[in-house]
Specification:
about 190 residues; about 50% helix; about 25% strand; four-stranded antiparallel sheet; 3 helices
Length: about 190
């Protein structure tokens, strides 16, 4: 009889444990469903925001084209992608060669050096950039604040550049380029 009572006690405890685990699983399943609903809502919100931002970008592009800055900004992005982005000295040299071919009018510039001769010794840093464009009071002229990040395995630097550019006779032209801390933002040059 005593072994029967132990057996019933064990069965009762197992049934209670199974019921508890079942309730826990049901509750977890309910939480998972709630989380999935929240994820769907957030994905919809993200999709809506992306569509809204695309609309704003199209409006901004339209405005840039209308005020004559679209072509300048496109050329500036192309220039910056080559001038500020590289991960080896060979890539840097190739980029400068591409810039000389694309923008031959900048080869003899005393404002920007695209000769490709300013390669360093040893391993090249990885260079990336981000930029903010600003309209100026002149049609077809854009100012940029460029942030360049160079990094190696052991160190990194962050440089900011101020650049003014425009289209002259259908050609991309850089009229001002200096490190931001040296830039004279109060007078025209």
């Amino acid at each position: 009889m005593e072994s029967n009572n132990k057996f019933l006690s064990i069965i009762t405890i197992l049934i209670l444990v199974i019921m508890f685990l079942g309730a826990l699983v049901l509750n977890s399943n309910h939480n998972v469903k709630d989380i999935k609903k929240d994820i769907v809502k957030l994905e919809k919100k993200q999709s809506d925001r992306a569509k809204y931002n695309d609309g704003i970008d199209k409006k901004q592009s339209s405005i840039n084209e209308r005020i004559g800055n679209g072509a300048v900004m496109k050329a500036a992005k192309n220039f910056n992608d080559k001038f500020y982005t590289w991960s080896s000295w060979n890539e840097f040299s190739d980029n400068m060669k591409d810039l000389r071919a694309t923008y031959p009018n900048l080869q003899d510039s005393n404002i920007v050096d695209i000769s490709g001769k300013s390669v360093g010794n040893g391993d090249s840093p990885d260079s990336i950039y981000s930029t903010d464009f600003y309209a100026t009071d002149k049609k077809g002229q854009v100012a940029e604040l460029i942030t360049q990040n160079k990094s190696t395995e052991t160190s990194g630097t962050k440089l900011q550049w101020f650049k003014i550019e425009n289209m002259e006779k259908g050609k991309y032209s850089i009229t001002y380029l200096k490190p931001y801390n040296e830039a004279n933002l109060t007078s025209e040059e």
